[in-house]
Amino acid sequence: MTDATRELLTAAEAGDAESVRAAIDRGADIEARGAGGMTALIAATKANHVDAARILIDAGADVNAKDDIQDSAYLYAGARGHDDILLLTLENGADLESTNRFGGTALIPASERGLLSTIEILLEAGVDPNHVNNLNWTALHEAIVLGDGSATYVDVVRALIDGGADIGIPDGDGVLPIDLATARGYDAIVTELER
User: How many angstroms separate the CA atoms of 97 and 49, rounded?
Assistant: First the structure.
């Protein structure tokens, strides 16, 4: 690994945008792998360093390259609500069918975490709201089972339904979203599902 490439990986992780640009100008390999198999773009994304990520993407960094735990800049930005970087990845070839280590699209962890603005971005981009992950859950299942039933998750469920989520898809045990919500006493979510 060249000095410029080492500098690039360090600068990206630190969010030092000017050093990222300088390393690229010195011929750094923008797809080189550092700790955990992360590219400079994945490292910048995990720390939500928007300016460093933008420089890397503008230089042609692969937004779909995955690290050792199957995170890409696109998937991680979507899963963590790093919306500025997410939008950059979507503008630069993000693979909407790409999946994480749990077999889920970016929409599923965003729904689990109640990241409404991120969910709206992903649905608008065309991510399948009915994708089923390795746990036999869709984004809707995760919002109900792993959410807390609060107003935030009511909004998430509404956004998913409005975005095309099929309320008739059961989980791996054959339980429907409405029954999952009912069992948890999430009355406002039940109301959305009945709508």
Answer: 25
pLDDT above 90 for 195: no
Q: What CATH number is attached to the domain comprising 109?
A: 1.25.40.20
Q: pLDDT of 145-180, one tens digit each? A: 999 999 999 999 999 999 999 999 999 999 999 999
In this structure, are 84 and 3 located in the same domain? yes
Among residues 95, 114, 130, which one ends one of the domains? 95
| pLDDT value for 86 | 98
- Write down the mean pLDDT value for the chain: 97
Distance of CA 112 to the CA centre of its chain: 11
Query: In terms of residue numbers, what domain contains 28?
Result: 1-95
CA dist., res. 172 & res. 79, Å (int) = 22
Do 107 and 91 reside in the same domain of the chain?
A: no
The CB density around residue 108, as the number of other CB atoms within 10 Å, is 30
